[in-house]
TrEMBL record:
Keywords linked to the UniProt accession: Lyase, Metal-binding, Tetrahydrobiopterin biosynthesis, Zinc
Names of the cofactor(s): Zn(2+)
UniProt feature coiled coil, ranges: none
GO biological process: tetrahydrobiopterin biosynthetic process
Enzyme class, first EC level, given as a word: lyase
Pfam families assigned to the protein according to its UniProt record, in alphabetical order: PTPS
Species assigned in the record: Ancylostoma caninum (Dog hookworm)
Protein name: 6-pyruvoyl tetrahydrobiopterin synthase
PANTHER family in the record: 6-PYRUVOYL TETRAHYDROBIOPTERIN SYNTHASE, PYRUVOYL TETRAHYDROBIOPTERIN SYNTHASE
Amino acid sequence: MVRGVVTMERVETFSAAHRLHSNQLSEEENQRVYGKCNNPNGHGHNYVWKVKLRGIPDPETGMVYDLAELKKDMKTVLDTVDHKNLDKDVEWFQVGVCIWRSVPKKSSLFLFLSNRTRRPQRDDDPSLFFENSIIKHAK
């Protein structure tokens, strides 16, 4: 039997809104630094979230990992952020919870998604590689 490393990727899209605003800055400074992204009502983005797995297919199932399980895990996380205002609807992004204490942006969204995605594991392939990436859609 020929065994090789296989890479697979699952892609999901979602939409979310937020406001770029720092409690450490005055209203005028926030406007200068963040411009239209400091709108009190927030602004939205469309995102693409990719989870990549790389490993040796299981000799019995032929799968690197069960994609149905990965889909279910990603959906659980997406249900938390999709079509939500991150500042108001997702506790993790509220002041004092998120490590940046405010200003939810792509880096903190990436950490949120990464930390809530169950890492796939297989006993027969401890080298299973797992990677998250997120990109913001252009208009």
